[in-house]
Amino acid sequence: MKLEISLFGTEFQNPVLLAAGTCGFGMELSEVLDLETLGGFVTKSVTVEPRAGNPAPRVTEFQGGMLNSIGLANPGLEATRRDKLPWIRDNVKRARVLLSIAGHRVEEFFQLVEGFDGEEGFLGFEVNLSCPNDTRRAGSTFALDPDAVARIIEGCRARTQRPLVAKLAPNDPDVGGTARVAESAGADALTLVNTLPGILLGPADGIPELGAGTGGMSGPALRPSGLLAVKTARAATSLPLIGVGGVLGARDAVSYARAGAVLVALGTASFADPRAATRTVEGLVRWGRGRGVAHWTDLVTPRAGTAVHDTGGES
Ligand SMILES: Cc1cc2nc3c(=O)[nH]c(=O)nc-3n(C[C@H](O)[C@H](O)[C@H](O)COP(=O)(O)O)c2cc1C
Predict the structure, then answer these.
(1) Active-site hit among 131, 181, 242, 254
(2) Helix axes 106-116, 146-159, angle to 10 degrees
(3) Is the model's pTM score more than 0.85?
(4) 245 CA distance to ligand 1 centroid (A)?
(5) Is 156 a catalytic residue?
(6) Fold of 5-299
(7) Positions of E strands within 120-188
(8) Coil, strand or helix: which one is 32?
(9) What pLDDT does residue 314 have?
(10) Residues of the chain with pLDDT under 70
């Protein structure tokens, strides 16, 4: 099975990415994983100012996955420009890189796009509209506010020609509507989904397991919500979709293709096995070969035609 995908005016050598916030800026994983075997990766979300993040413990596990409240710990705009992007520019050639940006206020997204747009080392922006761990926004995310989505994406669009990907939330009751808002505002693609808000409480004392109290749930338990969000967005827009949430290997990646995603990203799976993404690429080749599938894109469900079928019946 051929895995190459033409997207954003370039080629991805395969559809498997590492998800935002789970591989730092690439260099952190380069000792244990050959990044050049991947379709690409999405960086940790960067904010204008450096952030120390939320109080420890920031990560806890449960049977279905994990709960994190990292709180967008990141080096900020200046240090990312100075220390992180040059390393990516010099060391990552075949994998495609999306730079994730996040803000507490709408204008911060614009500052980030302006601050990064002239730099080398990345293909496009993934706009994190959906982080549930931003304590300043009390767990509410921009992705649940269509006006904010429109303003942020329109403002970013006006400031860059690069690919612009909007990352949406799993707990959006109208994710199809939000997908259309992002498309009208100028997004080139959508990533679905971010983590789902949750809490884990000690049974003996009722004390939250995470220092920040609540966190974002990821891993296998998120997969059904991720698939539903991708399928819903697929029906609502024609934009390319990046499917994220609970992908452990090739089978799950194919499920996301069936839902309509042309790229997939893994996060939590890499914590258990840093080679999970590389294994997924290898597994896809075997999966396709075993079933006589010529190309990955043959598995990707397109948006259903909008033609009205005459059923001959009365309604
Ligand atoms: C520890 C951790 C940190 C994350 N940080 C970010 C982040 O900075 N920006 C972002 O958009 N998503 C972040 N995410 C969400 C992931 O990119 C992904 O959407 C989510 O984990 C679901 O995928 P998974 O089930 O494969 O982990 C983070 C997830 C985890 C587990």
Answers:
(1) 131
(2) 20
(3) yes
(4) 9
(5) no
(6) TIM Barrel (3.20.20)
(7) 124-128, 164-168
(8) coil
(9) 41
(10) 133-139, 306-315
